[in-house]
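=== Given protein ===
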Amino acid sequence: MIWCGAGQAPERKLLTIRNPGGAEAEYVIEVEGLEPAWYTVLNRLRIGAGQELQTDVTIHPPADARRQDYPYRIFVRSDGRPDLQAEVMGWLSLQAPGATEAVRASPAASAAPVRPAPPRVTPSGERVTPPDVVLSPRSSFQFSQSEPVAQALVTVTNRGRVRERYAIAINGIPEDWYRLSDQELRLDPGEGRQISLRLNPVTGPGFPAGQYEFLVRAVPDGLPDYYGEALGVVSISGIARYEARLEPLQAQGLRKDFNVRVENLGDTPLRIGLQTSDPEARCKFKVPAPRDILVGQVGLLQMKVGAKRQGIVGPPETFDFRVKLTDEESGAQPARDTFDGRFIHQPKLSYRSVFLVGFMCALVGFVFLLVWLLTPAFESAGSWVGCQLDSDYRFAADTAPIKKESCGGAPREEELDRWQRERQGSIVLPFQQGVETAMSGPASLSPLTRLA
């Protein structure tokens, strides 16, 4: 790197360290070739087996440092095992202020110098330099069920010319996800101090597993617009877990509804689908589309089950089926993801009902036919009994009894007509007194005939 004077901002280099061993190890970082006050680096790091960690090496030589080239080396040694070490070499070139443009234009330079941010000015005209904030040993943090907690260091350096008081805050993640050892620092010009940051993210309905960016911000007292900040990333490996049950386990009817109730107990969203089957392949299923279930929510998936046979007439029949739950998002494997149910198909009419209806119809028809056939006999018997009790009638008290028609006599109309004619023929005129007239019998003659 090339250093061009006091006006240049500190130069940051990213150092990547990987633990290739099979156990967690602690490493010591040492810098040779530079004065201790010229750089800032974390002295010790603890790295898990097979993991990789990144940390910042900040180079900030003093303004009165001698203008020359300074080769330096960074050693990373395993604590307690001095024979296990790795090193990397660097080159610091301190240039005179007048040589800045020439160095910048040189195509052989491996990296252009970092230009300092323009100084900010307060409303009163005072020049203010924001503090330098560095998050180490890394800025990206991975969390899982086996690694729920991570530690980091926040280094705040006062780049101004006066003593400042800084408020330390974190934005972008919930307050219960982190804890700072100090939330306020008082720093002299050029002074830097480290505070510890403990990260312990807890997922929930509003914050499922995923990636979250956050900012560590140092704000000068009374100057909220002149802050310094460092970016960090929290990555949470989610746990997909849910509980489910089938309601009801058995139902009877022509077609029934079965509900699958799913509760998301993990920290990642679920997308639950249903797969149905029956060993005899005689059931008909209507399955809903896969449903998204957020963290902490309860979802209800309703499916319909029927039978492939006709549903008008027939006896009840039992069908066993199976429902399998699938998670299309996270591939969760719950304690139970298959459920067995039973559907009893009941047609609208059973054979017994059809038999009873047919029997009743036949019985009514038989009774009707029997009544129709036996009605003349009943009438004849009634007439005979009536004739035994009363077989004649009279039109007048002085007339002879007449046999009823139902008992073998002539029709009543004929008897009435005959009786009326006899009454008319039995009337005696004045000049015919003493003459006896008989109208009955075939030999009877009218009075006019006998007088003649």
